[in-house]
Amino acid sequence: MPDKDKSQRIRQDWNKSVPWAYLDPVHQNIPLATRDAHLRPPPPRISKDHDIFIGISNYRDIRRCGFTLFTAFSRAKHPERVTIGVVDQTQDDDTTCLEEYCKLAEASVWKECKFKSQVRIDARDSRTSKGPTLARWQQQQLIEN
Fold this sequence. Notes:
Blueprint: E1 9-11, E2 20-22, E3 52-59, H1 62-75, E4 82-90, H2 97-107, E5 119-125, H3 132-140
Helix pairs in contact: 1-2
């Protein structure tokens, strides 16, 4: 099927006649019975450009956090579409995740802290941390539009 986007599919090993399911939202949620056609949800609004949000809950692991940001932006095909939200739980003497990322970015071929404006930081004192579940909720609050 050369006309289908092969990046948007999953393998169905149980289905020998049609091993691939294509994940085009236009063709999903179709009622099986024609009498139920009115129950179908409205068609999805799909933009041509897809943005990616990456949420990170960091508890005093600054070097890995900075490296994760650097890796995300340097390996992205369209890094201008990537937004990262970091719940950065540090103590007074710790550097921040963003500072560590900027060190790596400035030492790379970029020579500057590129994409810094695409990183949203929720800085918190690690001594008052309430655990990973709350930190994940806090990182979800960094998602905008």
